[in-house]
Amino acid sequence: MGIAFDYAPDRPDHINAILNSLDRYNPETTTVLQDYVTQQCEDRTYDCYANLALLKLYQFNPPLLRDETTTNILTKSLTVFPSPDFSLCLHLLPSHILSPPTSSTSTSQQPQPPSGGLSSSNPAPGDAPLTEAVQKLAHLNTLLSSAKYAQFWSTLNGDDLYADLIADVGGFEELMRVRIAVTVGQSCREVERGVLEGWLGLQGPQFEHFVEEVCGWGVDGTRGVVVVPVNKENEAKGTVVKEDVRFDREFFLLFCVLGGGWN
């Protein structure tokens, strides 16, 4: 039997009480849930159900939305890929935050809405930094979903904004390497060392320590490959397809009568 979606082994009792009562819709609990997100970032725990509840409160109460907490939730959800948590969180954000940021020049050249109206396609005042951050994190999620792990690391290390986004999430890079390793272990038996180094963003002794001590894999220096032990996911198994088609007696007699018997 699978694990329930709303289950989190490290969830405190007072958070559990909020999520299982009408208080989850009470704006006064926003601060409590925001502190819980900070706790998750510090102690490397994760509670998707509680984070979604906070984003839902932001939906109902836009003035309470905090940029830093929102980006921390999205960043934490990346650490459990390939689960769909990032997409679940993303679709609870306001539409103007999901829109790509537009430059001031292009905005000035666009037709302005009538007085008293607000263009829904452009970010609201003060939301441009959050919009850019969300777009950056969404790009990382796309790279992970496409298994472009080497590009993920080069992108992460190539922009100072990413360093700011992951700063609050303790052990982000280590958690990502573990998730990538889990995915690789489910699909491969052997990987070229150079390829896996790019996937994990590690080289030299750090790479060997992670592969051997953390993952429990072996490094074959003579062939230049990393050997992944056999598991139920990466083991090649032959499949035998057998069809058993049966006809009842009445169908057989009808076939003989209409077909004139066997020729």
Please provide a written account of the structure:
The chain is extended. The chain has 14 helices and three strands. It has 263 residues and is mostly helical.
Quick structural gist:
With 263 residues, this protein is mainly alpha-helical. The protein has helices at residues 13-19, 30-43, 48-60, 67-78, 85-90, 95-98, 104-109, 128-145, 149-157, 160-166, 172-187, 193-200, 204-214, 249-259, and strands spanning 190-192, 218-220, 225-227. It is built from 14 helices and three strands.
Q: What topology emerges from the helices and strands here?
A:
Blueprint: H1 13-19, H2 30-43, H3 48-60, H4 67-78, H5 85-90, H6 95-98, H7 104-109, H8 128-145, H9 149-157, H10 160-166, H11 172-187, E1 190-192, H12 193-200, H13 204-214, E2 218-220, E3 225-227, H14 249-259
Antiparallel strand pairs: 1-3, 2-3
Helix pairs in contact: 2-3, 2-4, 4-8, 9-12
